[in-house]
Write a structure and sequence with these properties.
alpha/beta, single chain, eight-stranded mixed beta sheet
Amino acid sequence: MKTKIFVSTLLALAAAGLLTSLPAAPKDLLLKNGHIIPVAGPNLDGDILIRDGKIVRIGPGLPAGPGIEVVDLGGKWVMPGIIDSHSHIALEGDVNEMGDLITAEVDVRDIINPQDINIYYALTGGVTSIHTMHGSANPIAGRGVVLKLRWGAKASALVFQGAPLTSKWALGENPKQTNAMMPGRTRYPRSRMGVEASIRKQFDLARDYLKAWDEYERKVKSAAKAKQPPPLPPKKDYRLEGVADILKGKLWIRCHAYQSEEMLSIMKLCKDYGVKLVCFEHGLEGYRIADELKAYGVAVSTFADFWAYKWEAYNTNPHAAALMAKRGVLVAINSDDAERMRHLFNDAAKTVRFGGLSEAEAIKTLTLNPAVICGIDKWTGTLEAGKDADMAVFSRHPLDPYTVCEMTVVDGKILFDRAKYLEERKKAEEEKKKEAEAKAAKDKKVGGEV
C-alpha cells in the first residue's frame, strides 16, 4: 500500500513539474483574505504581501501591484511555517555511526539527500524548516544542520544559511548499548556514569590538543621573527578538532536525554567546561526539574504523547511539555519521525488538551520556540515584515482536530498546493490507466494474430 502511494506521489509530482529544479527567483505573491496567526502579535484577518522571498506587509486590503501573483485564501488560516527541531530526514543512509564510541568528526552535511521524498511529505504537513542530525549511539556524535525544505533544490541550497551548526550528544541506554543485540564483545561504556566520563575525557584531550596547536602557532611566529625554519606541526586529529569546536563555541550542543538525574549531571558538566548546551532532545523527565532547566537556560525538544518504548522512557505523561512550558522552559514539539512530522500541528493541540496551554503558546511550540532553539528566529518562526516568507495555510485553525494543510510556502514559493496536487495526481492516474488499457488492447490484438 505504501509503495502504491509513493509511486502515485512521484507521478503527480512529475506531472505538476515539482521534481525539477526551483526557479532562480521567487515570484512576488499576495495572499488575500486569510485568518492570520503572526505569533509575534495578535491574530488578524487580512493579506500578506511577499516580495523576493520576504514578507513585505501584513494587513487588510493590501493592493496587488503589477506582476504580483494573487492567491485568495477564502478565510483559511495562515501561520508561520512549522519548524521541526529534531529530525533525521533528508539524509542518505544510516544516521548512526556505530563504529566507535566518540564520532565527533562526522558531519551530516556530507550526506544531505535533496531527493528524499520525506521532504515533500513534510511540506504536506506545513513544515518548512528542520534541524536534521546524527543519531544517538554516541556520547559525542556528529554535527547536525538546519535545513530549509526547498523541495527541488540541490543539497547545498537546502542548508539554512546563518543557522549555527550543532553537536549531537546522547546519554542513557543508547550510548551505553543497553538494548544492543550485536554479537561479540561489548564496548565501553556500559553504565550511565561511564557515558559522562567518556565526554569529560574527550574534553580534556581536546583542551590538550588546543594547547599543542597554540604552542605550535607561538613557535611559528618566534621562528619567523628569528628567521629560522618553522617547527613541525602537531598531528592532525579530526575527532579532537570536532570536540575542540564545541569548546570554542562553534557548535551548539543538542543532547539526547530522558532521565532527570542525567540531565542535571550533564548541565553541571557543561558548566564545568564552559560549553553551550542549547537543548535536551526528548527530555521526557524534564517536567521533574523544570525550575533547574529554566535557571540553566536550556530548552527541551520533546514529544506530545510518545513514550514507554523503552525502560528509560516510561516516567512521563502527556502533560509534561505543558508543565515545563508553564514553568518558563522553552519547549518545542518535535517529530523524530518522518510520519509524525506530517501532523505536528495535531501534536501541538495535545498540549492544549492535556496540559492546558493557551492556543498561542501551543502554536509557539511549532514556530517561534524551535526557531530560537535552532538559532534561526532572526529569519523565521513568526510572520513579520522583513522575515522569510515561510508559512503554512490550513483549512481550519491549525489546532482544530479536523484541519488540513492546504498550502505550504517556502521563501515565497508555493511548494505544496493540496488542490493542485490532487488534481495532478488524478490526471497522472488517468493517464496511467489509459496506457495500461492501450497496452492490454495491443497485447490482445497480437495474441489474436498468432
